[in-house]
Amino acid sequence: MEATTDDISHQAHDRGSPAMRAAKDITFGSVRQINFVHFKIFEHPFDLTKVRLQTQVLDATARFHGPLDCLVQTFRNEGVRGLYRGLPAPIVGAMAENATLFLAYGELQSLIRVVGNVPATQALSLPQLALAAAGAGSITSVVLTPIELVKCKMQVQMLAVPAAAAASPLPVPSTVLASVVVRNLPGPYAILRDVIRADGFRGLWLGQMGTLIRETGGSAAWFGTKELVSKLLRRNEPERQLRPWESALSGACAGAAYNLAFFPADTVKNRGQRSFGAVAKELYRAQGVRGLYAGCGITVARSIPSSALIFWIYDGLRARFG
């Protein structure tokens, strides 16, 4: 049987000391991520598509005419390798994000119980769970921003190659010149080094405001939706645990809510590292709300199965091992 988010809040004080709770959350997160990595590999081309669509919002002429066109052009010009450009960063990021998020979520629930004098036998309310989730998201954003900075820079590297090829005075085919440029593109370590050289360690957190808004609000929407759907599925039997398919369904709804709620913050973050407000205004002037949600459709589509998988595995581990 599957445990629900409500069950997690019930069990917050029943899992031993803070050190034991932390060890369990990190272990569950790691085991879940071993399975989730396979799905992350599958969905990476769609994440790359999202980032490339977001970064062209302010371009005078759009390079891509939609998600499918972006996927086709990327495969045609860069091959399979191009579709997986920047893959190591999101794998590391997903593992760090989920371990941090679930650990912080459980501990903040315990803190809310202490501050609010909520007994362990009483379930936390939906607003209290959302507050814990928002706090967990804000903590996670600090871990996630440097990883996403590297990922996004790698995903858009190739967009500058055609321009470099066209500007070259050499009488060689553009595809040949482009392949030369690709071989000399910096990897993740080189990108980290260049960012630190240019802006110091502070540069690793450029775009932090966008990540903070997305993770804080998105995590509240994610866990909040999971809990709400879980309650609705059990409305006639409130004491019953969720069935596996119900856990996956509530997780799928949570994944859609996470991305729909604060997607514009992600678009602003991926566009540039200038003032968050200035970039947001510029994007809105260029294409309105549509520009702020560039790439949202394909992101929601990929987040539904991935979020369903996350909660299905996590709830299963929680139910079996406490």
Shape descriptor = globular
Q: Major sheet, described briefly? A: none
Output the number of helix runs: 12
- Unreliable spans: 1-5, 7-13, 164-177
The overall average pLDDT, rounded, is 82
Helix content: over 70%
Question: How many strand segments?
Answer: 0
Structural class: mainly alpha
Report the C-alpha radius of gyration, rounded: 21 Å
Q: Roughly what fraction of the amino acids lie in strands?
A: under 5%
Q: How would you summarize what this structure contains?
A:
By secondary structure, the protein is mainly alpha-helical. It is built from twelve helices and no strands.
Question: How would you describe what is shown here?
Answer:
By secondary structure, this protein is mostly helical. 76% of the residues lie in helices and 0% in strands. It contains twelve helices and no strands. The chain has helices at residues 5-10, 18-55, 67-83, 88-116, 126-155, 161-167, 174-183, 188-199, 208-233, 244-271, 276-292, 296-321. Helix 2 (18-55) packs antiparallel against helix 12 (296-321) and helix 10 (244-271) packs across helix 11. The longest helix has 38 residues, at 18-55. The radius of gyration is 21 Å and the shape is globular. The two termini are 12 Å apart. Residues 1-5, 7-13 and 164-177 have low confidence and may be disordered.
Question: What key attributes describe this structure?
Answer:
322 residues
Write the layout of secondary structure elements.
Layout: H1 5-10, H2 18-55, H3 67-83, H4 88-116, H5 126-155, H6 161-167, H7 174-183, H8 188-199, H9 208-233, H10 244-271, H11 276-292, H12 296-321
